[in-house]
Design goal:
Helices cover about 15% and strands about 35% of the residues. With about 400 residues, the chain is α+β, with helices and mostly antiparallel strands.
Length: about 400
């Protein structure tokens, strides 16, 4: 699912508008904001390292945005007198010394991934962001008595990385990889004029005055006014929009000081109907848990959470590391019926007792007809945006 928020307006109004937003409202907006803050860096510039919440983020030479704001040093270039001894060695091909205290792996221009001499790689994961036009790797690596977990992403334009001392913030290397890949990469997408003009699903803009601006060629086939029950001048709208053969569901809200929304392609939604999806978005926006058809106990056993739910089959502890992050204390998948529809459910319990419940309409699960097929379907989407 994708989201978009006017961050400038949100920040300006944060002291006067005490409405909390669901966590899902803040994932893609940050990427959109970063797209508008591109920073050029020369190929000879040294990497700038930032520490965010205990994780080190490194921005290597290039013109990419990264997932965290950063301050780039101005690039410097070496000068030399002409010589007749042969062609000058390109900066990118020269050996770059490892600064004292530097990590055990890095990406350098012209060489790509370098692992420091004497370092020992315990685990390695390549291609962290399938389908993206970058190279990437995660390393569980030791050097001089210190064990590191590193994630690096790079292309011809530059590189970015995140790192932590093993176990400092995540309980396992798998959990570190999951947290490093959850945002889709450390490079922000290239500027997209269409997405800037029509930020919601690339088909709609919802102004601060509540006016809908529709992309040419798009058609509104259904509209639900003010599903969030906001009080003027705040307003909201639910939309079903068709564009170029696809149907897109949107839930948007706006006020004179800011707004936001969620959107999803119907085919990827995991919901049987637009009304069910919209009701879930309203619940999440209001800080409620949304639709939960089943609940889980500490042994990974599911039981109905709503009247009328009938569990057909279930499987505890499915092999779905992309969703559990290697730290879940219990998980289970099930096939069930409710309200005349067949559903699948994936439930994950995390160490602090927090449960993530995903209810997924069977007719949107790529033909899955039993729990095992649903688990395979969920696994196939684990490297992308997941089930939602």
């Amino acid at each position: 699912m994708n989201t978009q928020i006017d961050w400038r307006e949100e920040l300006d109004s944060s002291f006067g508008r005490g409405v909390d937003r669901a966590p899902t409202d803040y994932l893609v907006p940050a990427r959109a904001a970063l797209r508008r803050r591109r920073t050029a860096m020369g190929a000879a510039a040294l990497a700038t390292v930032i520490v965010v919440g205990g994780i080190g983020w490194a921005v290597a030479p290039g013109d990419h945005d990264v997932r965290s704001s950063h301050v780039a040093n101005s690039p410097t270039s070496a000068t030399s007198k002409p010589t007749t001894k042969g062609p000058k060695t390109p900066v990118s091909a020269r050996a770059v010394p490892w600064p004292a205290g530097d990590g055990p792996a890095r990406v350098t221009p012209g060489k790509g991934l370098e692992i420091r001499e004497g370092a020992v790689v315990h685990q390695r994961r390549d291609d962290l962001y399938p389908g993206k036009d970058t190279e990437s790797v995660a390393l569980d690596i030791s050097f001089e008595g210190t064990r590191w977990w590193l994630a690096l992403e790079w292309d011809k334009g530059g590189s970015a990385s995140s790192s932590e001392h093993a176990g400092e913030l995540n309980d396992s290397f798998d959990a570190f990889v999951a947290s490093s890949t959850s945002g889709g990469g450390m490079f922000s997408p290239e500027p997209d004029p269409i997405a800037d003009k029509y930020p919601y699903g690339r088909v709609v803009n919802y102004g601060l005055d509540g006016v809908i601006e529709l992309r040419p060629g798009a058609t509104i086939v259904r509209r639900v006014d003010n599903p969030h029950s906001l009080t003027p001048p705040e307003t909201s709208v639910g939309l079903v929009v068709e564009f170029e053969g696809e149907t897109i569901w949107l839930s948007l809200d706006s006020s004179p000081t800011g707004g936001g929304g969620t959107f999803v392609k119907e085919a990827d939604s995991g919901w049987a109907t637009f009304d069910e999806w919209l009701a879930d978005q309203v619940a999440l926006q209001q800080g409620e848990p949304g639709l939960r058809l089943v609940s889980i106990d500490d042994e990974g056993v599911l039981t109905p959470a709503l009247p009328g739910v009938e569990i057909i089959e279930q499987q505890s502890d499915p092999d779905l590391e992309a969703y559990t992050g290697g730290v879940a204390t219990a998980s289970a998948a099930a096939m069930l019926t409710w309200d005349g529809e067949t559903w699948f459910a994936l439930v994950v319990r995390f160490p602090r007792g927090e449960d993530t419940v995903v209810s997924f309409a069977a007719d949107k699960a790529d033909g899955a007809s039993n729990v095992e097929e649903f688990i395979e379907f969920a696994r196939s989407r684990g490297d992308g945006e997941g089930l939602r």
